[in-house]
Amino acid sequence: MAKxxxxxxxxxxxxxxxxxxxxxxxxxxxxxxxxxxxxGVKAAILSLGHGANLELLEPLxxxxxxxxxxxxxxxxxxxxxxxxxxxxxxxHLSERGIELIDKKxxxxxxxxxxxxxxxxxxxxLVELCQKG
Length: 132
Ligand code: ZN
What we know:
132 residues, 3 helices, binds zinc ion
């Protein structure tokens, strides 16, 4: 069961410029910036207040995400639901025939995460996250 939408992931070509844009336009505040080498991105979590967050993702050179950016351009990348237990949700989804990208929870930007295949969810890449 999803508790809430934790964040919306947006693929960008330049993190600094994107941060400035979302700050200027919507008053978003930077919470955290980190390079996630295993995911091939430099990421920033921006807070919009009241628990609403954006995750801006700039691909690292020669990463898979760089290929995605080149192919699809900037824009919405994924939506993330916070759950109490990622592994429990994965088995719940798997029992319903939903195709998983991650079969098990793994460490993410904040806590444990897992991705669900967009072809099982009407074209939307969904991330589940479980916070410490
Ligand atoms: Zn995310």
